[in-house]
Specification:
Strand content: 15-25%
Strand order of the largest sheet: 1-2-3-4-5-6
Radius of gyration: 23 Å
Number of domains: 2
Shape: elongated
Oligomer: single chain
C-alpha cells in the first residue's frame, strides 16, 4: 500500500547570471510536523555590485512575487496553475509532469524496451490498480535479484544491451 507522500523543500538556493553578474539568493523555509507556515520562500536578486534589485517572497507550492526595490512595485513572476480534474488520482502532478510519462503507439516503436514507461507496475499505478502495481513491483525486483545472483554464480559480467559506459 502506498501512503501519503510528502515533499519538504528547505535550504538555500544560490544562482548567478554569468552574462550580467546578477545573483539570486533564495531561502526555502524549514517545515515539518511541528513547524507552521510551510512552503514559504524569500530571497533577493542583486546586481553585480551587490545592490538589491528585487525582494522575492511567496510559497513554492503557490507562487512567487518580486518587489522592485527602487519603485516598491510588486509583480507576480510565477503562479501555480489550477489543478486538473481528479488530480489527486494523478499523484497531484500538473499536466506537464503527467505528460512526461505519456506513451503512445508511435513512441513504442522507437523507445528501448527498458524505458521506465513500459514498467507494468508503473502502468498499473497510473490506472489506479494499487494492488497489481505493488505485486508487479515485487515481482520485477525479485526477477532482478534472481538474475543478478545467476550472473554472480556463473561469473558473468553484466553488459547493458542498450547503453554503453563511456
Amino acid at each position: 500500500m502506498i501512503g501519503t507522500t510528502y515533499n519538504w523543500v528547505r535550504g538555500k538556493f544560490l544562482g548567478k547570471n554569468i552574462k550580467t553578474g546578477d545573483e539570486i539568493a533564495m531561502e526555502y523555509k524549514d517545515e515539518g510536523w511541528v513547524i507552521s507556515g510551510g512552503h514559504k520562500i524569500k530571497g533577493d536578486v542583486c546586481d553585480k555590485d551587490g545592490n538589491i534589485k528585487y525582494k522575492l517572497k511567496g510559497k513554492w507550492n503557490q507562487g512567487l512575487t518580486a518587489e522592485n526595490s527602487s519603485t516598491g512595485k510588486s509583480i507576480d513572476i510565477c503562479q501555480r496553475l489550477p489543478e486538473i480534474k481528479n488530480w489527486e488520482h494523478q499523484y497531484f502532478f500538473n499536466p506537464i509532469s503527467i505528460n512526461l510519462n505519456y506513451l503512445n503507439v508511435d513512441m513504442t516503436k522507437i523507445l528501448c524496451p527498458t524505458d521506465a514507461r513500459f514498467r507494468p507496475d508503473q502502468r498499473a499505478l497510473e490506472y489506479g490498480d494499487v494492488e497489481l502495481a505493488q505485486s508487479e513491483k515485487i515481482r520485477l525486483e525479485q526477477k532482478q535479484r534472481d538474475k543478478r545472483k545467476e550472473r554472480e554464480e556463473n561469473n558473468e559480467v553484466y553488459k547493458p544491451r542498450w547503453f554503453k559506459e563511456e
